[in-house]
Write a structure and sequence with these properties.
Elements: E1 11-12, E2 18-20, H1 22-45, H2 48-52, H3 76-93, H4 97-113, H5 122-126, H6 141-159, H7 163-178, H8 195-206, H9 209-221, H10 228-235, H11 267-284, H12 287-303, H13 335-348, H14 355-369, E3 387-388, H15 403-412, H16 415-418, E4 419-422, E5 425-428, E6 434-439, E7 445-452, E8 459-466, E9 470-477, E10 487-490, E11 493-494, E12 501-502, E13 505-512, E14 517-521, E15 526-529, E16 541-546, E17 549-554, H17 555-558, E18 565-567, E19 575-579, E20 585-595, E21 612-621, E22 633-634, E23 637-639
Parallel strand pairs: 5-9, 18-23
Antiparallel strand pairs: 1-4, 2-6, 3-22, 4-5, 6-7, 7-8, 8-14, 9-13, 10-11, 10-14, 12-13, 15-16, 16-17, 16-23, 17-21, 17-22, 18-20, 19-20, 20-21
Helix pairs in contact: 1-3, 1-15, 3-6, 3-15, 6-7, 6-8, 8-9, 8-11, 9-11, 11-12, 11-13, 13-14
Length: 641
């Protein structure tokens, strides 16, 4: 039974406020031990260091300019920014003097590169200085600035060093002078959203609301008429109709943001825009933005999202196509897009805990995003199909290497997604072995020690540490898949979850004592999932989930002919096995039927079905596929008829 909650502003905790162990601790260790340095090494191998070093000759155009008038080399500042952000959070978990010195040296180069007016962009300072602010639609200037701002905030929070933060504040101050409706100002915004959410982070860490105002300006201007991209092209003597995607939907600039009803275009751009909108909705308590985002949210998760939380099925636009168009073998489902969905879902929780957002955040995190990183932190997926014949594998690098640092920075900052704090309430959005240090508005300091083997085990214990008794609310998400079966106890007293449920969270408001203990038990059982019949690619198929995890079958466990596996209509009893080679993951063994492919004969077609024989299948978490022997993989399995 839902209670009314006063509208509040919940903000994520800072990364250094959360210590992680268990599941996420292992992933963070992989980033600390391998990924962080690999990102830097491969950025340097690509030539990115020379690009920002004014003491070296400009490298010029290393990656050719393509038909859209630009090159992925224009994004190098973004790649370095996300890599520095990853390094920052890795240093907090595991100090590394050598890596920190390398990051400091890059920051020094950016300080020397920065113009006196604050402008900072390697491409437009050293390769095309005459093209500054002339093509915001395509050339990613503000996008690159956004990632460097996020890096600056992260590096300051993790190390206490202000140099990059001061550099990016100067740049942001320059933007305030450049953009607006005043004389000589540019009334525009970036074709690839990112600056919007970065400016919110800068405002929160500096306390300067002028950065919030600039973010709001970019959001409010988007898609308004006369259309900025059209007018910009005319001023630059370009044909406004002549650009690669031929539609402003590609960058979500076809309508003012509050009038948009359908999620369209490039998936990562959309997620970054909606993340910025949600932040601004929280900071300004803007109901018009919140309502618009609610419509877009429902459009995405009910018609355009894979069961993994992957989004954007098409490679042609790295984005969305038609409703219910979710092919499995050709799924693009870019890692960055699922990372962006985690960003957006998390920010939708800024105006109060709500399970419909947090459940999807968890689903996209564990299945859509985490899949992009190998268990050893050394190789990556860019696109994430839900079916493979064995030819899709992780790679070391990419001509557009946005995904490796994106998933790495998410993994290293995951503590800030697990918890959020309002004036007198703490929300627990995600579960896992962790320690939170928080301070409420009355200066009450609270430590939450969360003990859990989640997502392998559903038992969660939270111990509260206080200097003195304090009154506040603690909200715990009860996942939809666990509703009605979860058990909750406070100091061994059973609580009625339904009686204290608010928007899918168990909200406990009381005067807390030091040593209070909460125990939550979430049932982790294998459960079938069926797609809307309108999803033609999943007709007659079933997917299997356990807790938040999507499971799949791999050839290495099950041999070939994965499509011959038939899942019984009623799931039989299963057995579970811990796979140490997959970091202690829980595999599920399930009795199934198998179509007899060997006995079919030589005909391609015939008038009778294949015979079915009893067999078994081993299921492993989808996010861990392709970490062992190469082979085929399948998520959507044949369902018994």
């Amino acid at each position: 039974m839902s209670q009314t909650r006063k509208d509040r502003q919940f903000r994520p905790v800072a990364v250094p406020d959360v210590d992680l162990d268990g599941f996420w601790g292992k992933w963070q260790d992989a980033v600390c031990n391998a990924t962080a340095e690999i990102l830097l090494d491969r950025c340097i191998e690509a030539g990115m260091l020379q690009a920002i070093d004014v003491d070296q000759p400009s490298p010029g155009i290393v990656i050719p300019i393509l038909e859209w008038g630009g090159t992925t080399q224009m994004f190098w500042d973004s790649d370095l920014g996300k890599s520095i952000e990853t390094i920052a959070y890795s240093l907090y978990r595991k100090p590394n003097a050598k890596l920190e010195a390398r990051a400091d040296a890059i920051i020094d180069l950016y300080e020397k590169l920065q113009d006196k007016d604050g402008y900072l962009n390697a491409w437009f300072q050293r390769v095309q200085p005459d093209r500054r602010w002339t093509n915001l639609r395509d050339h990613h200037e503000l996008y690159c600035a956004g990632h460097l701002i996020e890096a600056a905030v992260a590096y300051f929070q993790a190390t206490g060093k202000r140099k990059l933060l001061d550099i990016m504040r100067r740049y942001a101050d320059h933007m305030i002078e450049v953009f607006g409706h005043g004389p000589g100002q540019i009334p525009g915004y970036c074709g690839h959203e990112e600056i919007e959410l970065a400016l919110v982070k800068l405002a929160r860490v500096t306390g300067e609301n002028k950065y919030l105002d600039l973010s709001k300006f970019f959001i409010d201007e988007r898609g308004t008429e006369p259309h900025f991209f059209t007018e910009e092209a005319k001023r630059d003597e370009r044909d406004p109709r002549d650009f690669i995607q031929k539609t402003y939907e590609y960058g979500q600039a076809h309508l003012p943001v509050r009038e948009q009803k359908k999620v369209v275009g490039h998936a990562v751009r959309a997620m970054y825009l909606y993340s910025g909108m949600a932040d601004i909705a929280t900071e300004y308590e803007d109901d018009s933005l919140t309502e618009a985002l609610g419509v877009l949210w429902d459009d995405l998760v009910t018609k355009q999202m894979y069961i993994t939380g992957g989004i954007g099925p098409a490679a042609s636009n790295e984005g969305f196509t038609d409703y219910y168009d979710l092919p499995n073998d050709t799924a693009y489902a870019e890692t960055c897009a699922s990372v962006g969905l985690v960003f957006w879902a998390n920010r939708m929780l800024g105006r109060g805990p709500d399970r419909r957002y947090a459940d999807i955040m968890e689903q996209a995190l564990y299945n859509g995003a985490l899949t992009g990183l190998a268990i050893d932190g050394r190789t990556f997926f860019y696109d994430n199909p839900l079916e493979s014949t064995g030819k899709h594998h992780r790679w070391k690098w990419h001509h557009c290497p946005c995904c490796p640092p994106n998933i790495a920075r998410l993994v290293t900052s995951i503590g800030s997604y697990m918890y959020a704090v309002a004036d007198d309430e703490i929300a627990v959005h995600l579960y896992g072995e962790s320690k939170l240090r928080a301070e409420l508005s009355n200066r009450t300091k609270v430590t939450l020690n969360q003990v859990s083997k989640y997502p392998w085990d559903g038992e969660v214990s939270i111990n509260i540490v206080l200097e003195k008794p304090a009154s506040f609310a603690l909200s715990l998400r009860i996942p939809e898949w666990a509703e009605g079966a979860s058990q909750l106890r406070l100091n061994d007293q059973k609580l009625d979850i339904e009686a204290i449920a608010v928007d899918g969270y168990a909200r406990i408001e009381r005067e807390w004592q030091d040593g209070d203990r909460i125990h939550l038990d979430l049932p982790l059982v294998l459960r079938p999932q069926f797609a809307n019949p309108k999803v033609r690619q999943d007709a007659g198929r079933v997917a299997l989930m356990r807790g938040p995890l999507v499971y799949c079958v791999e050839e290495t466990d099950n041999g070939g002919d994965l499509n011959a596996i038939v899942i019984p209509d009623v799931l039989p009893a299963t057995t579970e096995t811990v796979l140490e080679e997959l970091g202690g993951a829980v595999a599920v063994d399930l009795p199934v039927l198998r179509e007899d492919t060997a006995g079919w004969g030589s005909s391609l077609y015939r008038s009778t079905r294949a015979e079915r024989k009893a067999g078994s299948a081993r299921l492993v978490p989808y996010h861990l596929w392709d970490n062992r022997q190469a082979g085929a993989m399948l998520v959507w399995l044949q369902a018994e008829k």
